[in-house]
Design a protein that fits this description.
Elements: H1 2-7, H2 13-54, H3 57-70, H4 74-95, H5 102-139, H6 146-189, H7 200-204, H8 207-233, H9 244-273, H10 282-308, H11 314-339, H12 341-362, H13 370-376, H14 393-396, H15 404-412, H16 431-445
Helix pairs in contact: 2-3, 2-4, 2-6, 2-8, 2-11, 4-5, 5-6, 6-8, 6-11, 8-9, 8-11, 9-10, 10-11, 13-16, 15-16
The structure holds heme C (HEC).
Length: 447
């Protein structure tokens, strides 16, 4: 998408460091939110299937409440999902300027998919509630005439199928949004892949994308289980947290989070190993190991809660999980930094050029002197009164008297003129410089 390219302004090295910090921040908002969104949707659909299969009212209630977990407020979806994704896209557009635009494009695509997913998740949620209302109305035979009863029955069937479809589309859209997000971040890290003519396939089939996607999945389901525990069983929770239903949730969430917390370190180790060699550094390993150690500690906390049947470490576990997510994001940022060093050196040089030109255009910065250009370049082939490689200026300049623009044009792109001489090579001057040297030689030859 070209418009991203137009938005980019060359950045100084300091600004680029700042953008990297902002990227980390955006990701720390995005990843936990996206994880709980994905996790609760998957669990919700799973429990709905479970409820239908086994006719289990607990599973049905849990399925319904799970969608409410992240959909309590629409602006949260925008603030924690869409906005960070868009900022990442613009951030990467700045950082990967001149070398890779695919990363930004995939992030934009991911934002669009997430938007679609969020709309569908809300449809899923509302149809869930409506379908129950219609079902009750249908079962109780509400409606005064046969026609009304028929209508209600029709709505009941329609809402049910809408609910099913919305859930399915939401799930696909979310999974693709996540996949493109993970793919984009991994592509940014893997600078070796930039030149290899990247296309959708190169991110779909990259090993690091697949492994990191699985890692995201494990983390997402684990975090969702832990958020569920926190929501239902924190001391000042608005739900009582007692009774058969709550035992059902507790047992599921505890054992689930334990298994996933044990699997998570394996995924992290794998995700680190499959990274390109260019990206590996001491800091990348240090952060990966810190996350793994923390997870082992968390899994022991969960184990004790499960064994002793209490939820004392609930909040600590949630907090530590968020720390693990932050560590993983910083780890990936280090990997990105390490593998893109060369690229950033190019960008910094590009910025210096840009700055000098900008200053020259604005007339601030050191003035370009015609004398300097003459002494630096032209003198090799030109003298005012003697023939060197090129003709003496005193012979050629009179015809440019009063036609400075023509002279500037010639200097910027010389054409063959005098058969007695070879052609003049292009001197690669900028327009401002050509003007300065034209002024200088025109003023000097007369003396
Ligand atoms: C590598 C040698 C070389 C350098 C360096 C060089 N020139 Fe020339 N220049 C020539 C030659 C050879 C010609 C004659 C070309 C022709 O007549 O086709 C020429 C011709 C010219 C002419 C005459 C054009 C005309 O209309 O007859 C001007 C003016 C001129 N150069 C300006 C410059 C300026 C200003 C610079 C420095 C920015 C410069 N040149 C640097 C080789 C050079």
């Amino acid at each position: 998408m070209d418009f991203l390219d137009k938005l980019v302004l060359p950045q100084s090295a300091h600004h680029m460091v700042l953008i990297k910090y902002l990227l980390v921040l955006a990701n720390i908002l995005l990843v936990p939110y996206l994880s709980v969104l994905t996790g609760s949707l998957i669990f919700s659909i799973y429990f709905k299937k479970q409820a239908e299969k086994k006719n289990n009212p607990h599973a049905y209630r849990f399925s319904k409440e799970l969608v409410d977990l992240v959909t309590f407020n629409k602006s949260v979806a925008v603030a924690l999902g869409i906005v960070p994704l868009l900022s990442s896209s613009f951030g990467y557009a700045q950082l990967l300027h001149l070398s890779n635009f695919e990363v930004s494009n995939y992030l934009l695509l991911s934002a669009l998919l997430l938007l679609a997913a969020i709309v569908m998740i809300f449809t899923f949620k509302y149809s869930f509630h409506f379908k129950d209302i219609f079902k009750v109305a249908d079962e109780k035979g509400i409606g005064s005439s046969e026609f009304e009863k028929e209508q209600i029955n029709k709505y009941s069937v329609n809402t049910n199928s809408m609910n099913r479809k919305a859930g399915k589309i939401a799930l696909y859209a979310t999974i693709f949004a996540v996949y493109f997000y993970v793919g984009a971040v991994q592509l940014a890290i893997d600078s070796e892949r930039w030149t290899a003519g990247t296309n959708v396939f190169s991110i779909v089939f990259s090993l690091s994308t697949v492994v990191n996607f699985l890692q995201f999945f494990v983390g997402s389901l684990a975090l969702t289980s832990i958020v569920v525990l926190y929501k239902y069983f924190r001391p000042n929770s608005d739900v009582k947290g007692e009774g058969e239903y709550f035992d059902y949730i507790k047992k599921f969430s505890l054992s689930n989070s334990l298994i996933l917390t044990i699997a998570f370190p394996l995924m992290i180790a794998l995700g680190t190993v499959v990274k390109t060699k260019l990206a590996l550094s001491f800091m990348v390993f240090a952060y990966a190991i810190a996350a793994i150690i923390l997870l082992l500690f968390v899994s022991s906390l969960i184990y004790f809660m499960l064994k002793e049947n209490h939820l004392k470490y609930n909040l600590a576990v949630l907090f530590l999980y968020v720390v693990v997510f932050a560590l993983l994001i910083i780890k990936d940022q280090y990997a990105f930094d390490t593998s893109t060093q060369k690229h950033f050196a190019v960008l910094a040089a590009n910025y210096t050029d840009y700055e000098t030109n900008l200053k020259a255009d604005l007339g601030i910065g050191p003035a370009i002197s015609g004398a300097d250009i003459y002494n630096g370049r032209c003198i090799a082939c030109h003298n005012f009164d003697k023939k060197v490689v090129g003709p003496p200026y005193n012979e050629t300049l009179p015809k440019y008297e009063g036609k400075k623009a023509d002279l500037v044009k010639y200097i910027l792109s010389p054409v063959k003129i005098n058969p007695a001489y070879p052609a003049m090579p292009n001197q690669g001057l900028k327009p401002k410089e050509a003007e300065a040297i034209a002024d200088y030689i025109l003023a000097t030859y007369k003396k």
